[in-house]
Specification:
By secondary structure, this protein is of the alpha+beta class. The chain has one helix and two strands; from the N terminus they run H-E-E. InterPro entries: DNA_clamp_sf, Pr_cel_nuc_antig_N.
């Protein structure tokens, strides 16, 4: 499990771009409390 608080959306985009080749499948659960 990965948990983080990010101040800018561009940081999340950079992280996802960096790990997209490492993962075959991924799921994001979005709610009022954040992305899990």
């Amino acid at each position: 499990m990965f948990e983080a608080r990010l101040g800018q959306a561009t940081t999340l985009k950079k992280i996802l771009d960096a790990i997209k080749d490492l993962l075959n499948e991924g799921t994001f659960d979005c709610s009022d409390s954040g992305i899990q």
